[in-house]
Write a structure and sequence with these properties.
Shape: rod-shaped
Distance between the termini: 155 Å
Helix content: 40-55%
Bound molecules: ligand C2E, calcium ion
Strand order of the largest sheet: 24-25-27-28-29-30-31-32
């Protein structure tokens, strides 16, 4: 508020200094009435004011002088006079405002002239929460409130001296002038502008002004609303809008209106990502992009969150404009207004298609066998679990089948790994072709495959499927010009019958597969409780056996061999025995296969050999140089690379006479790989050991190989003697074997001789040697020693 009277006294003069109009303040300040003032010269009232007028006219700028006002009552008042051209009056450009301000210390006019009646209005103006101003046509302020002074950082003395355009940046001044002029001419105007304080303070205002008259002086009055806060918000919004516009993430804003949720804005990144422009999709429901039938669960979650007005983070697939499907990681946040209603949703979309693809590849790698592309153990477990749940829900059966190739090791060893790999791949393909899409085929490594078949109507169906698989997989594979036949043993477990956990089902299938292996391979076995017991026994046997070898539970029995011509005991077969402290004597028929399977046979076989050597040594020292002991040899021992050397060392350390040690190898073992067998046997022969083909007649020897094996004896398998005395077919075989042996210059030994008939039969057909319960079962070393030393004979 100006510190003077209200309002400031303004005379309007023409270029000749004649007073044209004035305001009430002039009358109050000078004490003159309207009649006194009208047509007076300004100089008549304010001595020296003409000076300022001339300056203003001559230089066209505001003229300032100190002058003296003489009141009607003759008293004088020192005043400051500012004369300014009416730049805001286009009709009368040669008109001037003379603004008269009493000088410091002379602020109050005489008491009688106090403008008491104006006080309430003053108070109102002062109390306004905004800037208030009155401007005359020269552009000078006649009235204002303290808020304006604050913004301008000026005192009340300074404010009226300047043209208001000086309160603004120079660049803005023409516009300011234009706006005030507009108010003078049209009655009102409004504009935003920044007031610049004396010390640089800048405050944005929204000015609204209107025309009025103060006395006969046209003025513009108005208010200025401080809009700093709005401006700041606006700026912040603009920054944010800009950020959203430039964001690399696709952004979508939807607007909630009467239950609908429609697109209001999408940013350029969204347009780039999807191929849709804002113009195209504005006003549409964003769900138009979803891919029907996918991600139902995630979308359900989104819907739920939206109804609860919560933020949600989801990963769904959407379709681009060109139909391409992309993965998007979506974050949706509600925008809630003051009364708590959601007005908008902001969605930020990240295209994670590449990540997804990469993730999938990694996942594929983690879950699949690299050679065949089949599921691996990890994925298999998951699939069995799922398949089990499915079967449970649908009251269906489900089958887990373990498949193991019968001769993969042989294929690998003989044809090389490349062929082995090709066979595995082919088997994988065949398996996959034999099952439905919802089924799973996995490879556990090596030559072990697993097939999971979901939802089977009956066990009969499963059996049919397995037979198809067995035949399909077992067909010859043609690789590198060879036909390889990958026989397969299959074990099957069923849900729910054989177990209700992944682990149980897998173990049951494994057990059944093991059973299939032991029952002749290339067949399929279903799991059963009984089988489980067998398998269980087998497993415990395995554990106990390894203990037995170290723990001295094994011993060797010697079954005497008799010369059928002389009846003399000429040798013995070493047969391993196991006295299990828990279960008593265990038959080698039971534990030898286990020892072979586990590899314990190497240790065990060497142990028996050593015992046999030492017994032989003792007998030789006792003076029986021709006595022979035969030891059974497992195929696995024979395959050991250093077996021949080890045996040589052992024989040497016992100082054995050549020809006293005999080794028995079964016919079927030899025929597994006859060429290798010829090689191995030849080496053994060089050591001076005698060789027998054991269990002869049970394998499928070809005559040509028989001739090549450097062996001394063949042993007729005891099954061929069983029917002797009954006149059956087998006797024919026994006869044939005897004559075959003789034709090949081999000694023929009959084993398992239990009866006199058998003995007579053998003698009749000139078999060379025999062993069997008829003469003696296996004996301890001491017993054997007695038999030899006391020269026991077989009766003739
Ligand atoms: P094998 O080599 O055919 O041994 C002969 C088997 O016939 C022995 O059974 C013997 O006790 C049995 N036997 C002898 N005379 C008669 C008879 O008159 N009637 C009947 N029914 N059986 C008779 P065992 O000792 O149970 O051995 C079974 C198989 O275990 C052996 O068959 C052999 O293949 C294997 N075996 C035994 N000891 C060893 C060993 O130290 N090393 C290896 N690798 N295998 C062994
Ligand atoms: Ca034998
Ligand atoms: Ca035998």
């Amino acid at each position: 508020m100006n510190p003077f009277s209200f309002p400031i006294a303004v005379f309007v003069i023409d270029a000749d200094g004649r007073i044209q109009s004035w305001n009430k303040a002039c009358e109050k300040l000078s004490g003159f009435g309207a009649d006194d003032i009208r047509n007076s010269q300004l100089d008549d009232i304010i001595a020296g004011a003409g000076e300022a007028g001339r300056e203003a006219i001559q230089y066209d700028r505001d003229g300032d002088v100190d002058a003296t006002l003489t009141r009607k009552d003759g008293s004088t008042l020192p005043v400051h006079v500012t004369t300014a051209r009416h730049v805001l009056d286009r009709a009368h450009p040669d008109t001037y405002s003379v603004i008269v301000i009493p000088k410091e210390g002379e602020k109050s006019p005489p008491a009688s002239q106090q403008m008491i009646q104006d006080a309430p209005l003053l108070d109102i103006i002062e109390g306004l929460p905004c800037v208030f101003y009155v401007i005359d046509q020269s552009g000078h302020l006649l009235l204002w409130n303290h808020r304006l002074e604050d913004a301008l950082e000026m005192t009340g003395d300074e404010v009226p001296l300047l043209n208001v355009s000086h309160f603004f940046d120079e660049k803005q001044r023409p516009e300011i002038k234009q706006k005030i002029l507009e108010a003078f001419e049209t009655g009102s105007s409004s504009h935003e502008a920044v007031l610049v304080g004396l010390h640089g303070k800048r405050t944005p205002f929204l000015f609204n002004c209107a025309r009025m008259s103060l006395g006969s002086i046209p003025c513009v009055f108005g208010t200025g609303l401080d809009i700093s806060a709005q401006k700041e918000t606006e700026l912040r919004l603009r920054v944010r809008e800009r950020a959203m516009y430039s964001s690399v993430n696709a952004i979508m804003i939807t607007c909630c209106k009467s239950g609908d949720n429609l697109i209001e804005y999408v940013n350029p990144a969204f347009e780039n990502l999807t191929g849709y422009t804002l113009a195209e999709i504005k006003g549409r429901d964003p769900r138009f992009m979803q891919v029907v039938g996918f991600d139902e669960e995630e979308r359900g979650r989104i819907r739920q969150a939206l109804t609860r007005r919560e933020s949600v983070h989801a990963i769904v697939r959407n379709a681009k404009k060109n139909g391409e499907i992309f993965w998007n990681e979506l974050r949706i946040d509600p925008v809630i207004n003051m009364d708590g209603t959601v007005t908008h949703y902001v969605g930020v979309i990240d295209d994670i298609t590449l990540e997804r693809q990469y993730e999938r590849r990694l996942q594929h790698l983690a879950n699949h066998d690299p050679l065949t592309g089949l599921a691996n153990r990890t994925l298999l477990q998951e699939k069995v679990q799922l398949s089990m749940l499915f079967a449970q829900r649908n009251n269906a059966l489900m089958a887990v089948a373990f498949l193991d190739l019968d001769n993969f090791k042989f294929i690998n060893d003989n044809y090389g790994h490349e062929v082995g790999d090709a066979v595995l791949k082919e088997v994988a393909t065949r398996l996959s072709h034999n099952v439905r899409e919802e089924d799973t085929v996995a490879r556990l490594g090596g030559d072990e495959f697993v097939l999971v078949s979901t939802s089977q109507p009956s066990i009969g169906h499963v059996a049919d499927l397995m037979e198809r698989v067995r035949v399909g997989v077992g067909a010859p594979v043609h690789v590198n010009g060879k036909d390889v036949i990958p026989g397969v043993s299959i074990g099957v477990s069923m849900y729910p019958r054989d177990g209700d956990s992944v682990d149980r089902l897998m173990r049951a299938a494994d057990a059944a597969m093991y059973h299939a292996k032991t029952t002749g391979r290339n067949n399929c076995q279903f799991y059963s409780e009984e089988l489980n017991k067998t398998v269980h026994e087998h497993l415990s046997l395995k554990a106990r056996l390894s203990r037995a070898i170290q723990g001295g539970e094994l011993f060797v029995g010697y079954q005497p061999k008799v010369d059928l011509h002389t009846g003399a005991v000429i040798g013995a077969e070493a047969l391993v025995r196991w006295n299990d402290p828990e279960n008593g004597v265990v038959s080698p028929e039971k534990f030898i296969p286990v020892a072979e399977e586990t590899g314990l046979i190497i240790q065990l076989g060497e142990w028996v050999l050593r015992r046999a050597c030492s017994t032989l040594r003792e007998l030789q020292e006792q003076g029986f140089p021709d006595f022979t002991i035969s030891v059974n040899l497992s195929a696995r021992q024979l395959r050991e690379a250093d077996f021949v050397q080890r045996l040589a060392a052992m024989m040497a350390s016992h100082h054995l006479l050549p020809g006293s040690l005999e080794l028995e190898v079964t016919e079927s073992h030899l025929m597994e790989d006859p060429e290798k067998a010829v090689e191995a046997l030849t080496q053994l022969k060089h050591l001076g050991v005698r060789l027998s083909i054991d269990d002869f007649g049970t394998g499928y020897s070809s005559l040509s190989y028989l001739q090549k094996f450097p062996v001394d004896n063949i042993k007729i398998d005891r099954t061929f003697l069983r029917e002797v005395g009954w006149g059956q077919r087998d006797t024919v075989i026994a006869k044939a074997i005897i004559s075959l042996g003789h034709n090949l210059n081999l000694i023929v030994i009959a084993e398992g001789v239990e009866t006199l008939e058998q003995l007579r039969f053998l003698r009749e057909y000139e078999c060379d040697q025999m062993q069997g319960f008829y003469f003696s079962a296996a004996l301890s070393k001491q017993q054997l020693n007695k038999v030899i030393t006391s020269n026991v004979h077989l009766h003739s």
